[in-house]
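Objective 1b. Sequence-to-structure analysis of HTH myb-type domain-containing protein.
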Amino acid sequence: MRQSTRGWLQPCPWIVVLVLWVAFSWPSDAFLHIRQRRFSRKQTKLAHRAVAQDTSLKSSLPFANPDRCKEWRQEALAIGASVVALWTGLDCALDPGVRPLEDPIGLLKIALPTALLVAPGAAVAACARLKPTPADFKGPAGVVMVGDSLTQGTVSANVLEVLAERGRRRGQTLGSLVNGGLNFRALSDVGPELLQRAADLKPSHGLVLQLGSNDLIRYLAAPEWLRPAEEEWLQTYAEQMRQAALELRCGGEVLLVSPPPLGEALGSLEFDLGAKMAKAVEAVAADVGCGYVPLFEACVKFLQRSREVDSSAGTRGYSLAEFLPRLCLLPWRLYVGQQSLSQIQAEEETKLTLDLVHFGDSYAQLAADLLEEKLGLLK
């Protein structure tokens, strides 16, 4: 029987579903033997309850609770199975050489490698589909934050959850802390509908806009001969920030946050561009009458202080080749291996980041300190 010349790329759907079901449903200890302490399901639930009384315990906890892990597995399985089933169905329809009903055993040889190719992408995409926390777009809102994965908090420390925990400990009634973050979102992706939706909530404490990290990633990923001139690109970014801020202002006080740095290498190209982006955001905030949150500057100071204690701090530079493999592995470490953010940072030997783009607990505390002050939550 003739095999398809493209057959090694197209597995049959049922075997992919089986492989993904095993990968996402089997107990995590069967896959990852983490050197640090592992938590049972019951221990994890008890630990997450305890953190409500003592937030200092959070750094030692698994990043995701059991319910969150289950939600992630379901999303990853659905995405992976759907994509592979569609791809395979199209191939079977277009190529008469692919006959899964007549020769299913032959397709077994191509099913496993394809499932492995699909799994990393499905794992990352599933993080973007997780329900936003602490709250989705609903009122009455206390704070609305529009951002990217650093706001969504499914592959990075969740700043809004830190703010919510601090408010509970102070006995404050802040209203809903609305998470308007989405993985991979750049400022250039934001349309007026999203901004109007955020402004319509009219939060009592303010609207926060933090975008720019993905804009910088895309800029650096392009070959130099395809990039716009640096000055032109920064002007475009500043104008997009200005337009977004003006559209949000009808909803109340607006805070513009400078995007944190890529990587941890002080003095690198990424840090230089990040500093220029921060200055652009600050200038826009002053021009349109918004508050400015110097998050980039706070991260730089943190790394500088860390370097005074540890000479290796502030030396891990960003590159797309280093970032992408770490990003593909990160969801597995968080939702299958159930590692804490501090465990991942210890293994990666980083001070602020997990994968050179997404951040750990120290970053969340820095950002929460700044936002509490600028939003007036400490009054």
